[in-house]
Amino acid sequence: MTKRMQLAVGSLIVGLAVLALKASAWWVTGSVALLSDALESTVNLATAVAALIAVRVAAMPADANHPYGHHKAEFFSAVLEGVMIVIAALLILREAAGTILDPQPVAEPLNGLLINGGATVLNALWGWILITRGRALRSPALAADGKHLMADVVTSVGVAIGILLALTTGWWLLDPLMAIIVAIHILWSGFKVIRDSLSGLLDEAVPAETLQTIRDVISTEAGGAVEAHDLRTRHAGRVTFIDFHLVVPGETTVSASHAICDRIETALKSAIPDANITIHVEPEDKAKHTGIVVLD
After folding, report:
1. Which CATH superfamily is domain 208-293 in?
2. From-to residues of CATH 3.30.70.1350 in the chain
3. Over the stretch 214-238, which tens digit does the pLDDT of each residue have?
4. What pTM was computed for the model?
5. Which residue of 51, 154, 224, 277 is surrounded by the most CB atoms within 10 Å?
6. Which pLDDT tens digit goes with each residue over 134-160?
């Protein structure tokens, strides 16, 4: 089992444990804020399943129908996660609206908060693992799942603060009000996940610093060539696609041109993990004099 699959399965197990704890906290207290927290955890569980499927599909090798691989499956999963986060926020708003006109005291608030606190600590630890490992493995689905869990942590902390304030002041209206504040925060988190995932689906270029790294590598390693131009980049899951035209002197042999390309590809793959590189070699009369200058 790959590291991505191990993390995805781990998310499923953690999601089940957290949902059980938060549902118990709501059952003990009857708090609408804790109910909102539990509702978000049902979405966490669903997104963990989506991430598991996406990671499995993305790991499939390229085939005749998908010659560039299945890497974009992770972006679809991340978009789905964003949509489900938004749905969770809307469900919370509905529950809070039904209670705000008739707020009720929370039963056994301290017991409920202790149970919910255990779930929050578990979520925070696993969310941090998913974000750090997801970025290291260049997995949008795992990183998005981690961000979702960290948003859930913020939710749980806010809920706890609201219940404690209501308990000390007797203003039980704070319970549904905190649920509304939490829902707004979750909505913003969902929109950010969707926005970041759509950039990958729309073949957005790599970040500026990565692009500069690519240009520097080509400039340094293309000795024997004249220039490189028409550089294009995009990313799909963990894979970065790079293609450009390499201009060589007219007298350069095919074998020599191939050696230059091999040198550039080796250096790019060392600088950009999981790079997929396509180089189109052209004779000197095709030079545009506006591309990447080759250093001697």
Report:
1. Cation efflux protein, cytoplasmic domain (3.30.70.1350)
2. 208-293
3. 999 999 999 999 999 999 998 776 7
4. 0.56
5. 51
6. 878 777 667 777 877 887 788 788 778
